[in-house]
Amino acid sequence: MSYEGKMLEDFRMPTRKEVEQALLKSLFNHKGLIKEFGIGAEIVNEIADDFGLNEEQRTAYLETIYKKENRVKKSSLWHRLLFRAADSLAKEKLVSRPTQTMLLTNKREWMLTEDGYDRALKIVGVPLAKKELFPIKSYEVQKIVNKIRAQERPANYNPLETNKKKTIRVTQEAKLRNRGFRQAIIEAYDFSCAVCGMKICSPNALQWEVEAAHIVPHNSNGKDDILNGLALCRLHHWAFDVGWFTLDDHFKVLASRRIQDLSADFGKIWNYDFMRQLSNENPAVSLPREKTIHPHPNAVRWHRENIFVI
User: Fold this and answer.
1) How far is CA 50 from its chain centroid?
2) pTM of the full predicted structure?
3) Hey, how many other C-beta atoms are within 10 angstroms of the C-beta on 205?
């Protein structure tokens, strides 16, 4: 048995496989990303707490003797175990290494891959069918997000997908693209509704209320890109999709005249008149600071002409 193996046994540390599972679970709980394992890092203590490690286990050190340099190097046994478990996950392509993630996000973090995300869902007991519900970052989806955010903004932008391939089933590539579109939009709008500013997440912070709305809908071959997207809460998303309101050329809310014809008890949330608020205020929507990722006027114009009910 190696010196390190004996230390792990003597201090009754968790097995590497157990730590691998704990890391995947933590990655899921942290939306797909965790920082490198530095001394005092929150994630290091969090996983130690999950295992119920005592102070002796957390502070145990390995000693490496360098005879030529006449020095002794100490390294945390718990940190070494965490790194070895993460390294093993990286070799299985379940996570990306911090050096790889750095190229995508400019941050040194461990990130789930799609295979790692699937494995994490199994560990936490969530069916794969619910995979699309969570804004979990994966290496593959982040690459799509970067591509979406970096796209050019042509004056003659066409929001319609003109060369869309006919498919009988939804492909894995299409699912990744949908998740990339959603992540790019809600992050660009700081997880807030562009119309009302609603910003709220689930108690475990894994699900956001805000949705990524296509300005030109998917069923009309609207593109999955940031120039054809808008972050809206569920109520405003529905109202936008069915034509109760649209946007003018200055990104101000333009409400349907038919709102005034609604029955007095329609469109209200108790005493709050949700529908008539749209026509009374005519506010400008909140857009990202970067003007290059604002909705394109051609997409907004298409919505006014094809979806909006005057």
Assistant:
1) 24
2) 0.85
3) 11
